[in-house]
Write a structure and sequence with these properties.
Chain B: Residues 301-311 have a biased composition (Polar residues). Chain A has 504 residues and is an alpha+beta fold. Chain A is 21% helix and 25% strand. Chain A has three domains: 3-96 and 360-380, Sandwich (Jelly Rolls), CATH 2.60.120.1030; 140-328, Rossmann fold; 386-501, Elongation Factor Tu (Ef-tu), domain 3 (Beta Barrel). In chain A, helix 1 (99-121) packs across helix 2 (152-164) and helix 3 (240-259) runs parallel beside helix 5. Chain B has helices at residues 3-12, 27-31, 45-57, 64-76, 81-94, 100-113, 118-136, 139-152, 165-176, 197-217, 222-240, 244-265, 315-318, 325-328, 340-361, 371-402, 410-415, 420-426, 443-465, 479-489, 505-520, 570-591, 600-605, 628-656, and strands at residues 430-431, 438-439, 523-525, 546-549, 554-558, 560-563, 566-569. Chain B is globular. Classes of the chains: A alpha+beta (504), B mainly alpha (659).
Chain lengths: 504, 659
């Protein structure tokens, strides 16, 4: 990953103070693609013309910073000139992009939005345009499926960004059901948030924007307020039953919110999925159930399949009679990512959740650059988590299902499981082998105060209010040190552990 | 031949913003390249001066982006504040009359938003500059300048005069002293000491403008509708001519009204009420939450409810005109006579309505046109005016989108050419230079753009102020808050400050503590002869402590506020007022339409003020006698749980199905 060095030297200008600065002139409908090595950063400035990164327009003359092994592309519909400072491991201009297809998808979705809004407003159908509509116009509720490295998240981002850029006040609901990605929250979580400004891209630690901090932010996609559920594992096959339930919980909350917000409902829903939904290996018999869970929970009416013929056919067969299934092309710019990279990105995300992230500009460049559209990243992107000691008894910790679980099919015929996949098991931090050290825990919203309303598996249905990491275990004194994003008492709280760990 | 103009046009293309057709030395544009977009790199004062001057010359029309960018530079370069001030002064003096107003708006923006050190630097020159300009400009511009002048009264961050009392009064005296410069529709020429109709009119217009803006941002606000209607009627009256005492009465009332609206229109902290200029300014340090002395010495002030989240709609709770005896009964007890739901509107509107009633009593206004009738008309008018542009734009967009014949099929997706560029770029000609977000044309969009620029400014200022404090990731919100967030924010209005929901508990506690301190700092001067008398607070029955104030050489009651000739503990009174506010909030929500039939108590939960997040178990103000934040927090927590509990069992059933 780190060994690649493409010796490209286009129109090299006089390098200023050690930073390599050069200019790229892009023809209309081309894109500049770059990949960064660990520990390097890049500054891109739009000198003239118009350009966008995954659908988010760049402001002219502003230096945008990228870091943490970011792999990105600056696309231009009209042509532009870019100034690039820094040393990407790969950079080139591509003339073949699927952008016009994505734009067409967006226009088709926009047609659904305006029709749905017309119904909300109660305006009459204006002209013969409406005659093709099938009576009950629904807002677009889009499920994006595709194999690994097909650019699903990018497609979701572009479609969301184009929607908010229409100038119509759309606020589409972005749902991430890919636990390996984590989105705004943390890897292992699935979440949903409503967006009303373009999602910026500067680092894989915050691909979908960021959740709110106490710092003032200029771009609302950097201070999102999501609803989050904790699955606890990066792989969907670890506990598909649990994921299924969480997806349905998420869908129920999204539906309730949109019930209260007619205009938000017209903006539609866009759902990013894990690549395991598309991999049709025998070990993945759960994926159909999970796709069905998404379709039911969010009332999906459009399925986009990114560059996967077989999956497209499969989806056509299963849902073609009631849902529009469309195959869309995959971008040639998608980088094949190895497991090591994905592991590092998870680390970046966890670090970003606790400490924030400030991208250091390439050497020789002072302050004054934008990170994810924010003007003073050094003031607003550095976060201070809080480390505190709590007694074992202060926190009730559960694990969902057994640590290692054989598939039901592997059990002897007639044998029932002793512990079900959905059973919350109390974790005793005092026991050696609790695996709590360095574990990422999700702190849950308070349970029902009314004892009679409680039920055994309630912890499965409570959303997350934050994440903790156990940084030290003191078994003799029955105390542990935990890192929390901000201050607050944890006494009497419930937390759930998964299989994710993090250490500095 | 043909090559030359082409290439020239090309080389200019990227910089269309920097005009070449300006009255200022055009040759300069050829000598220097257009000013660099990044101001960060200026270092040399003389270069900075030249550059700032060049940019100032772009300010030929009232353009919000230009003013914003100029004030942002000013904010970034406070060390060159003197140069900025000199540049602006020179600019205003030099440019033709029609170009002066935008420059004054810039002066206004810098002084208010950056405040320190600019307000200080402008103070010595502002009086002369204002008056000179006022002499030269036409009637229209004068009115705009008067409006601006009125905002200066409370323009400073602490709610005081932006440039101090003396310059403010000096300017006001000059322009409103005689009637030669003001609107001449008055049938009663003002005496030299009196108030001119023109002055009242311009103040009236100012308040009216604020209310209309408030109405625009919330067209369902009945209070604002009534306010606007009453004010419009008043305006007609004043134009028709009223007597001197009536004029002064109107003026006094207007001044009592102005501040709360100012809160909603400016990003500054809540300004205090305007001290009356006919009296010497109040010398003692007045905390920001203390509205300052009103016009009548006998009833100085009311406590401004520190928690009220609706500054513009809850005027009635803060500034009840005290001379109307009918109202005094409403100051503390909750309304009981009327059914709860219908009691809220009178509570809310009494402020302006009382002004009207006072005039009615005085025989100035005829009772035939009732404020409610007028309000209803105004409502209808506003509705048609406000909704139409937005709906029309949506309709226009729909037409255009539907004309794009793209279907969701693989062939269409890959073959069709949609006019995406048109939608993403050309239809949205105005772009924010800070973040690249675009806005369509039209008045609604223009307002959005302005709000957007204000947001950048505010956030920058906050980021600058927060240095060293340390930020942290917020906890996520509860299900209840999340599912109702969309409905409350409407079209994402509150989203720009999305962290509103999740203010950190530390900040909450600090805020509570500060409010507490401000309340405790309030005092009431003991009437001469009463020093020995011991009085107690009607609410808590505890005696009030009296102390001798060294600075003023007077005996005062500490932590006290006078209300209807009774002295209360400021803290007790604020608490009582807060509980009334929450009642009002509840009643208001009762009236407002929400699809779900929640009980009032639950509704209250989703409205600001948001108290500490459940996690920390309540605010901690050591020694707080009230303890009410903690209580309400726990209460809400309990309610949250209750509802989430009610909601979850179906989930369980639902999720248990597939297995």
């Amino acid at each position: 990953m780190s060994g690649r060095q493409h010796a490209e030297e286009p129109q090299s200008e006089a390098a200023s103070a050690g930073a390599r600065s050069r200019e790229w002139v892009l023809e209309p409908e081309t894109e500049y693609r770059f990949e960064l090595d660990p520990g390097t950063s890049l500054i891109i400035k739009l000198v003239c013309g118009h350009a966008e990164i995954f659908g988010a327009e760049l402001a002219e003359g502003k230096p945008y910073a990228f870091g943490s092994e970011c792999k990105g592309a600056v696309y231009t519909w009209q042509g532009c000139t870019l100034e690039v400072i820094g040393q990407p491991s790969t950079e080139y201009i591509s003339e073949e992009t699927p952008m016009s297809a994505y734009a067409n998808v967006h226009m088709a979705l926009e047609r659904m939005r305006v029709r749905a809004l017309r119904v909300v407003h109660g305006s009459p159908p204006s002209s013969n345009e409406e005659s093709e509509s099938d009576g009950d116009p629904m807002p677009p509720r889009v499920l994006v499926l595709g194999p690994e490295n097909s650019g699903k998240t990018t497609v979701c981002k572009i479609l969301t960004n184009y929607a908010v850029r229409m100038g119509q006040g759309w606020s589409p609901m972005f749902v991430n059901v890919d636990p390996s990605e984590g989105g705004w929250a943390m890897p292992g979580a699935i979440s949903a948030a409503s967006l009303d400004s373009p999602i910026q891209s500067s680092s894989p630690a915050s691909t979908l924007g960021s959740t709110a901090t106490s710092a003032p932010m200029h771009i609302s996609s950097n201070s999102l307020v999501p609803i989050t559920y904790w699955y606890g594992h990066a792989e969907t096959r670890r506990n598909p039953l649990l994921l299924d339930r969480l997806i349905r919980n998420l869908g129920e909350n999204v539906a309730e919110r949109l019930d209260n917000d007619a205009e938000g409902r017209a903006s539609g829903i866009i759902i990013d999925t894990p690549s395991s939904f598309a991999a049709s290996s025998a070990a993945n018999d759960h994926r159909q159930t999970l796709i069905k869970a998404c379709v039911d929970a969010f009332g999906i009416n459009v399925i986009l399949v990114v560059g996967h013929e077989k999956l497209n056919v499969e989806m056509q067969r299963a849902y073609g009679n009631r849902i529009t299934v469309v195959k869309i092309p995959k971008s040639g710019g998608v980088v094949e990512l190895d497991a090591g990279y994905r592991e590092r990105v998870r680390k970046y995300q966890m670090h970003n959740y606790m400490y924030g992230e400030v991208i250091e500009a390439p050497a020789g460049l002072g302050a004054g650059y934008l990170q994810a559209g924010e003007q003073t990243p050094d003031l607003t992107h550095r976060l201070a988590p809080s480390s505190s000691q709590v007694a074992f008894g202060d926190l009730t910790i559960y694990r969902i299902g057994e640590e290692t679980m054989a598939p039901t099919s592997a059990l002897p015929i007639g044998a029932a499981r002793v512990v079900s996949e959905m059973q919350p098991l109390l974790v005793d931090p005092g026991q050696p082998g609790s695996a709590l050290y360095n574990a990422v825990l999700a702190l849950l919203a308070p349970p029902n105060p009314d004892e009679s309303e409680r039920y055994d598996e309630e912890v499965l249905d409570l959303p997350v209010i934050g994440f903790l990491v156990v940084t030290q275990l003191d078994i003799p004194n029955r105390r542990m040190t935990i890192l929390t994003p901000s201050q607050g008492s944890l006494t009497g709280r419930t937390a759930i552990m998964g299989s994710l760990e993090w250490q500095e | 031949m043909s090559l030359y103009p082409q290439s020239q046009a090309y080389s200019q293309a990227p910089y269309p913003a920097h005009g070449y057709g300006q009255p200022v030395p055009p040759p300069a544009a050829y000598h220097y390249p257009p000013p660099p977009v990044q101001p960060v790199f200026h270092v040399d004062p003389s270069i900075f001066r030249r550059d700032y001057m060049t940019r100032l010359n772009e300010l030929t029309i009232n353009s919000r982006p230009v003013i914003q960018s100029l004030s942002m530079i000013a904010q970034d370069f406070t060390r060159y504040a003197e140069i900025v001030v000199q540049c602006i002064e020179t600019h205003i003096r030099r440019v033709p009359a029609w170009m002066k107003l935008p420059a004054f708006y810039l002066l206004d923006a810098i002084s208010k938003n950056v405040y320190d050190p600019y307000a200080r630097y402008f103070t010595p020159v502002v009086v002369q500059l204002f008056l000179e300009t006022y002499e030269q400009v036409d009637q229209d511009t004068r009115r705009k300048m008067e409006e601006m002048l009125l905002t200066w009264r409370t323009g400073a961050p602490n709610g005081r005069e932006l440039f101090g009392v003396v310059p403010q009064v000096a300017i006001e005296r000059q322009i409103w002293s005689g009637d030669q410069t003001t609107a001449s529709s008055s049938r009663h020429p003002s005496t030299s000491t009196g108030i001119s109709a023109g002055q009242v009119l311009s103040e009236l217009d100012f308040v009216l403008g604020q209310r209309e803006r408030a109405l625009q941002s919330n067209s369902y606000d009945k209070t604002a509708q009534n306010h606007v209607a009453v004010l419009q009627q008043l305006r007609k009256l004043v134009q028709a001519g009223v007597s001197q005492p009536e004029l002064s009465q109107i003026l006094n009332q207007l001044r009592a009204l102005a501040p709360p609206a100012a809160v909603s229109s400016q990003p500054s902290p809540p300004p205090a009420a305007i001290p009356s200029y006919s009296q010497p300014p109040f010398a003692a340090p007045v905390p920001a939450a203390y509205p300052g002395p009103a016009d009548h010495v006998t009833h100085p002030a009311q406590v401004q409810s520190p928690q009220s989240p609706y500054p513009s709609t809850f005027d009635g709770l803060k500034h009840e005109p005290v001379e109307l005896p009918a109202l005094t009964s409403q100051t503390l007890p909750t309304p009981t006579a009327a059914p709860a739901a219908s009691a809220a509107p009178p509570l809310v509107v009494n402020n302006i309505t009382n002004l009207y009633n006072a005039l009615l009593k005085a025989g100035v206004v005829s009772a035939s046109a009732t404020p409610t009738g007028a309000g209803a008309t105004a409502k209808a008018e506003e509705a048609t005016e406000n909704v139409d542009p937005a709906r029309a734009a949506a309709r226009e967009h729909r037409k255009k989108v539907l004309s794009q014949k793209v279907k969701l099929t693989s062939t269409d997706i890959n073959k069709q050419r949609s006019e995406i560029v048109h939608f993403l770029y050309q239809r949205l000609p105005t772009q924010c230079k800070q973040c690249g977000i675009r806005f369509p044309e039209g008045s609604t969009a223009k307002k959005n753009m302005e709000d957007h620029m204000d947001m950048h400014f505010r956030q920058n200022r906050k980021a600058g102020q927060a240095v060293g404090r340390g930020h942290s990731r917020s906890w996520f919100v509860s299900v209840e808050d999340w599912t109702h967030d969309g409905a409350i924010d409407g079209k994402g209005k509150g989203r720009a400050n999305g962290s509103r929901l999740v203010t950190s508990s530390a900040a909450q506690a600090a805020e509570t503590a500060q409010r507490e301190a401000e309340l405790r700092a309030m005092f009431v001067v003991v009437p001469p002869g009463d020093e020995a008398k011991s009085i107690s607070c009607p609410i808590c029955k505890e005696p009030l402590k009296s102390e001798f104030m060294e600075d003023d050489e007077e005996w005062v009651w500490q932590n006290a506020v006078r209300k209807d000739d009774k002295i209360y503990h400021a803290t007790c009174h604020a608490e009582a007022l807060a509980s009334k506010t929450s009642l009002a909030v509840r009643l208001r929500n009762e009236v407002s339409s929400r699809s779900r039939s929640l009980t009032p108590e639950r509704r209250m939960r989703t409205t600001p003020p948001r108290v500490a997040i459940p996690l920390d178990g309540g605010a901690k103000v050591p020694g707080s006698p009230s303890g009410s934040p903690a209580r309400s927090s726990t209460k809400r927590k309990a309610e949250d749980d209750e509802t989430s509990g009610e909601r979850t069992p179906p989930t369980k059933k639902l999720a248990a199905e597939p297995a």
